Fold this sequence. Notes:
By secondary structure, the protein is mainly α. Helix content is about 75%, strand content about 0%. It has 19 helices and no strands. Helix 6 (about 115-125) runs antiparallel to helix 8. The longest helix is centred in the C-terminal third of the chain and has 32 residues, at about 305-335. It is globular, with a radius of gyration of 21 Å. The relative contact order is 0.09. One of its GO terms (biological process) is electron transport coupled proton transport. Keywords: Electron transport, Membrane, Mitochondrion, NAD, Respiratory chain, Translocase, Transmembrane, Transmembrane helix, Transport, Ubiquinone.
Amino acid sequence: MITLSLMIIGSIITSLLVPNNKLWTTSIINTSAILFVSFIFYSGNNNVIWNHLSINLALDNISTPLIVLSAWLIPVSIMASINSLSSNTFSNQQSFIILNLFILLALIFTFSTTNLIIFFIAFEATLIPTLLLISRWGMQKERIEASYYFLFYTLISSLPLLIGLITIYYNEFNTNIIVANWNPPEVSSPILTTFCIVAFLVKVPIFLFHLWLPKAHVEAPVAGSMILAAILLKMGGYGFIRLFHYFWYSLEDNISPVIVIFCCWGGILTSLICLTQTDLKSLIAYSSVSHMSFMIAGIATGTNWGINASIIIMIAHGIVSSALFALANIFYERTGTRTLLVNRGLKNAVSLMPIFWLAFACANLGLPPLPNAIGELLCFSSILNWSLISYFPIATGIVFTSIFSLSIYQILNSGWSYSWSLMSSLFNERENLTITLHLLPLLILVITPNLIS
């Protein structure tokens, strides 16, 4: 982990010293090297729960896939942003890349630390770079309002988490995750449990805690949307899994039944909201809320199937949602609008686009044998085993998810081309590579799903 951190710091220094005409190339090469080094973490013994163990840093089967996902998507998001930032000044381009690298550094520490206090600091360290990405490089003037929503939702929900972690330390004199795995503390206070998990429910987010997400996604630049959807939202699910050991007794007795039922019905309502959206990025953002609600319900059941399913859903959804935002940005750069009906008919100009949209729409709705289907099957099985009453919201959620996923494909890739949607440029090599680098890990996980399970 120290090696990865030093490589990221070296990449930041390199971005400050590199000449103008080699900034993007150097940054992509550096982040790709970080990705290849992160693959080494998969070389640990699979029979060992924790590996690469140090004083405050360690990896296990939960954190390793998330670290590799972070290292995979940062260079892809930088690559997707080249065209939209090419007209900016050199200092602005430098700042953009450095902020992305700072987010990656914070993510590495978030997913690898074994100390809950360090986890909280790294968890909050992503706030400022993401806020700057939204407010400085956002699409429209509403980006300032979106920044306020993102900032205050995160800060208000994080204060109870900090109070809860301090209380845990004074009660247990220990905040080590590994110790909690082997000897779970008998924390039975529902109030303390609620204080600690609310920050993760807002970060994921689940229904009713989600109002900041569509605004942040719609106004963020393409890299901000990709990082938000693919990685930053997964920090909430990861934190919820880690704290589940601390609050096992309280969650099982008092809070899990409420969370499971609330998340299942919230997933349905968010899917209904998706059917009413006319903005492409807003629809993809609400889709993330729907998927993450069912994922949190799976974790709240407390079973091994539920937790394993949540990890698979987080990784698969991270890849798919990032790809959907990248595809939406390709449309936006050519037509200047994200309205669904205005963007229809572009298949006549871009022959590969319908294939990519179909692949990721099918992945988004959970079509076998894609990894999304594996995760959702395990998750729904875990929820139904917990309570058969959840059958109706799960079945309804599956239907609505299929409807809006296929609606995106049908609207954008059918119909006649209109004069306002004629594009002046075709699908270039950079954009082709960006989408292919999302499709490649999906195909790898179809062949070897045990990489994340």
